[in-house]
Amino acid sequence: MPDDSAARIAAELRRWASTAAPGTRLPSSRALVRAHGASAATVQKALRTLTTEGLVEARPGVGTFVRAVRTPRPPDYGWQTAALRSPRVHLPAPSSSVRPAPEGAIALHAGYPDRELLPERLLRAALGRAARSDVAVTRAPAAGLPELRGWFAAELAAATPVGVAPPTAGDVVVLPGSQSGLSSLFRALVGAGRPVLMESPTYWGATLAAAQAGVQVVPVASGPAGPAPEELDRALAETGARAFYAQPTFAAPTGALWSATTRAGVLDVVRAHGAFLIEDDWAHDFAIDADAAPLAAHDDAGHVVYVRSLTKSVSPAVRVAAVVARGPARERILRDRGASSVYVSGLLQAAALDVVTQPGWTRHLRHVRPQLRARRDLLVAGLREHVAGAHLEHVPAGGLNLWLRLPDAVDLERFVDRCEAAGVLVGRGTEWFPAEPAGPYVRLNFSGPEPGAFPEAARRMGAVLAAC
Amino acid sequence: MPDDSAARIAAELRRWASTAAPGTRLPSSRALVRAHGASAATVQKALRTLTTEGLVEARPGVGTFVRAVRTPRPPDYGWQTAALRSPRVHLPAPSSSVRPAPEGAIALHAGYPDRELLPERLLRAALGRAARSDVAVTRAPAAGLPELRGWFAAELAAATPVGVAPPTAGDVVVLPGSQSGLSSLFRALVGAGRPVLMESPTYWGATLAAAQAGVQVVPVASGPAGPAPEELDRALAETGARAFYAQPTFAAPTGALWSATTRAGVLDVVRAHGAFLIEDDWAHDFAIDADAAPLAAHDDAGHVVYVRSLTKSVSPAVRVAAVVARGPARERILRDRGASSVYVSGLLQAAALDVVTQPGWTRHLRHVRPQLRARRDLLVAGLREHVAGAHLEHVPAGGLNLWLRLPDAVDLERFVDRCEAAGVLVGRGTEWFPAEPAGPYVRLNFSGPEPGAFPEAARRMGAVLAAC
What is the ipTM of this complex? Predict the structure, then answer.
């Protein structure tokens, strides 16, 4: 049958073409007719098949040619293996808390508050004003806009007791977010190869920044009232460390709020060791049952280096933070910032300043507080009802998170994965420990979208736990 | 006279109080009356004088006491000296090119183009739109907005010849400005303690970023047509370096544009050594007589890691840049970025993308070109007329700067200072050399404010040079 002939001729030509060099001319149709004893139509049909398959190409009036078969070769970057060498520092992948949530999932894993908790109206107006003003087309000074530096200083000065010299705008360096600030602080105040103490658990971004800076993290146990000053004393003495990174107020992930005794004790220890306390006051604007009271307000001798961010409370699109530091430390930090980013977008700085100096900002913070409380309490109630096997060590007086301890026998990875399969995203506690975790913990953010789904999330977590 | 008595008593008490311990009680009024043989009114007057002077204080019903004299003691941050230790890396102060110009000075020292060269109308509209959209209240993905990554890839793809696989959005990482990108590239691709080659002279920000990353800079001589490939070959072989940072197109500070031979030669050498070429295409949008043609467009094997910034061409307030890298190198860079800043403000990304995808953007670039040409030519003419003793090695085909060599006998510091005293700010050439400068150079930015003052600036520079 003619169809069979065409297929047979095509198969033979396919074999031949597969070994021929690209660009080789096929025998003419006439020659193929002769060689195969087939009709011209059959030969044409065989050639059309090969053309469709991309093996040959007809150049009208010239002939038919074997095509260069361009199978998409996977690119070979093998040479980079040697060029990149083994990294000096193995940086972990970013925390799972920054990945986007799949459609329909209840997201308790994220680190950022939901849009409904942002001062959206103030923010849009401020951005609009900034877009129309000079800051949209000019470069900001290296240390930041003087007015914004003044605001950060004034915020801390307002908490400063009589007898302590309050900070001034000259002590402030504006940062493009606190993450890059932490990198600078660890490089500037600690330095590669040297130790820095950190609470355990602590903010994952701090351990990541420390790893990048090549500094060695030494964990210090910390509980709901903060670390024991004598533990800190011992660790400073043992390691020779001159810096302690900590979150005295509504710490991530635990929500811990240091007691007055701990605060005074830590400040004494830090002074006695001639060391820095790097105070990360990230949750300053997320107070619920207690006001944020920066430890830095009690120090005018340059021991406390204070970091405050507006990213989470103003908008994740307005990455503005600041460090307040006194003495040569500030100059060392400023130098590092100069090498890191030269300056921070003045547009974002102006917009942030605009938001926080509006009368509406105080009203907004007053409005956020009961919302955070209601969200926190709703999630706590859900956990107590449905996840009774787990232990909530502490109901935080501020911040955005609950820190839930699962029964020791639970396989954390399996629990987190099964929760995700059940449509609930939770934060894997291991990410907040600088070393081995003290137990199987999950971090639950109560500031995410859809608080109405918290009871259902708790119910599903309970079901997963029961099956684990 | 009673007045004299009061003054005499006050003077005596002042002497006495100056040696008494703070808190010492003064003799009673009655005792003073007795001792000085004065009236009670006179004694009271003397005491009021001392009170007003802040030397004593009356505690009603108790007595009058010597006050603790609170002379404002300068704060003592001496303890920080030991805590900060000697820095691992001595970072220089930021370049003088980033400092603001004094009122009335002709500013040829800066690194940024004047406002009139920015797409101000497009920019303000874009920022306004961004302020009203979702990007104002949401967090951007770690690698950047997909659409912006696509735009950066497409720009490079448009220059990619047939036969080379063009880059895709997946190869792009958006950066908060190229300075922090360079820090990441040196950390990720080179690593502390290892060598990186750089042209000499080169961009000061690159040597600063390298110092911060702790990498060792090895200079390679470069001229108006770029470095000699055989020099590069020798330096790579000698040092074992696996990375070369360079600006093939309108290099800062010289304006050099690599010849086709240099481009092909450098790419061959880099390939032969299994090394990276970090191509900084900072002046892509500042072409004058020749178009910018990225070298990266000729590589699909991951050798060229390409950096492009929009900070100078869109707005210094919109700090958005990108790196295009293929293979494991990109993953290594992305990890470093994650530790450095987590993500870049989506608002700035969206605004930048909005600007560069408007039809007006191409019109703007077409409009900037003749302006840059006129400015460059005006300054060149001024220098040729008034600063004949200096040597302009090369009239650049793009970029923002002239690179002027002064006679070897000139003391550069004195020249720069005297120019400043004469109201002309110029860039100190030493800042662009990774090692000892090859001669006394100044960098003159022709994109700053008031091009009309260029002839006058040249005249004053000529006068200073003649007096040097």
Answer: 0.85
